[in-house]
Amino acid sequence: MYLTDKLKQLKQENAISMHVPGHKNMTIGSLDQLEWTHDMTEITGLDDLHSPEGVLLKLNAFLSGKHPGYHAQAMVNGTTAGILSAIFAVRGEIGRFVVVGDAHKSVYHGLEIAGTPFVTVAFDELYNMDVGDSAVIITYPSYNGTVDPRMAEIIEHVGSTDGISIIDEAHGAHFGVTGNFPQSALEFGADIVIQSYHKMLPALTGASVAFTREKDVHRSMMKYIDYFETSSPSYLILASIELAHQFYNEFDDELFFSQRETLIKSMEGRGFSIIETDDPAKVTLNMEGLSPYALFDALDRAGIYSEMVTDAGVLWCLPLFHRGDRYPLEALLERLTNLTITQSRRGTKSEDLDFLLGKTAVRSVVPYPPGVPLIHEGERFTEEVIRTIIHKKSYHVKMEGIEDNIECYKVDEDS
Ligand SMILES: Cc1ncc(COP(=O)(O)O)c(C=O)c1O
């Protein structure tokens, strides 16, 4: 057995999670209320996710309580299916899409299959743009937890010119949980907001919720969610959304902030430098004299698994500590004390990819995580893109799509 053994091994090692999903190996939240026997299907009494009239309609009504004036739909195929659905839901209403800043690959996948024109712009450019005929797709917050303070203004600007705002809030399902966290775009009146409940809240992987303001947009979203999402939804995931939502409603941040402070202080005492950001549940770690990749590897070896590593540092998604949680904070602090640091062997091998220069990408190249494309299919490889790919590959960052390009053009070269 391959995967099963690997998962068992991680459990045996008492792997410590500083990554998504937010239940942190079932130590946060109350998913222990669920049992394998709850993996049911749409039998009598369990409703129909794509045409809800009973218990799932009630679940959606519960979720829509997150902010007055929104419809909600629980989803089991992640924010990815929500983004695809949102693009299709509004494309008939607008002339083009405007993609703001770095966007997740699902945005580009949706735009490609919808075939609707789009432009990509920086956040600042939006102010001076006429977006009346556009649907504006904004990622809020960023993967590492930063938020643009002008978000409310921008959503207002889009709405006041009759544009449509679609907010990829994959990393912000916990926003607004208390006043000490950033506000959700739901607070700013965005038209469509899609949140991955599984990332920062204690829900099962795949759990997301789509929020829509207008009834017509909601109806259209429901049509396309039905197109893109499995017709056999996992009731375990759906129930986990309900439990995570209840967690959100009842969360008291006092213990979270005190445990967070204990952790940060203790790490600083051990020589870590901690970069805090707008989202208090995200921190980026570094250690002087050590590459972030070596730090990431050292943490892995100690059984502490991080969310992501980039040149900026190691990204951690902190647990939403709460009274009665089972998160192994003591064990974490002990492992950090005994951390064995060695310089990384990564970054030593430099591959020759110059043969890609000027060639047209046959597949988008996407460093994963974070899943933001570096070059899109159909674009030409520039020197800068090639240098970035070589650098990331040398640090063993997963690069989706690169092998297809290498295979395509390397053969050409060799023949
Ligand atoms: C910014 C962003 N948007 C969307 C997604 C897709 O979310 P999901 O994994 O829920 O499909 C991700 C996943 O990492 C993401 O980082």
**How confident overall, as mean pLDDT?**
95
The number of helical runs is 13
Largest sheet: 7 strands, mixed
In sequence order, what are the helices and strands, one letter per element? Answer: HEHEHEHEEHEEHEHHHEEHEEEHEHEH
Shape annotation: globular
The low-confidence parts are: none
Strand ordering within the main sheet: 2-8-7-6-5-3-4
| CATH hierarchy: architecture of the largest domain | 3-Layer(aba) Sandwich
At CATH level 3, the topology of the largest domain is Aspartate Aminotransferase, domain 2
The set of bound ligands, ions and cofactors reads:
pyridoxal-5'-phosphate
Number of strand segments? 15
Pfam families: OKR_DC_1 (PF01276), OKR_DC_1_C (PF03711)
Domain Orn/Lys/Arg decarboxylase C-terminal: 348-407
Keywords: Decarboxylase, Lyase, Pyridoxal phosphate
Family: Belongs to the Orn/Lys/Arg decarboxylase class-I family.
Question: Would you kindly provide a brief summary of this structure?
Answer:
The chain is α/β, with parallel strands linked by helices. It has helices spanning 3-12, 55-64, 78-90, 105-114, 151-160, 197-200, 215-228, 235-250, 254-269, 292-301, 329-337, 383-394, 402-414, and strands spanning 16-18, 71-75, 96-100, 118-121, 134-139, 164-168, 192-196, 208-212, 272-276, 282-287, 304-306, 308-310, 313-317, 366-368, 398-400. Bound molecules: pyridoxal-5'-phosphate (PLP).
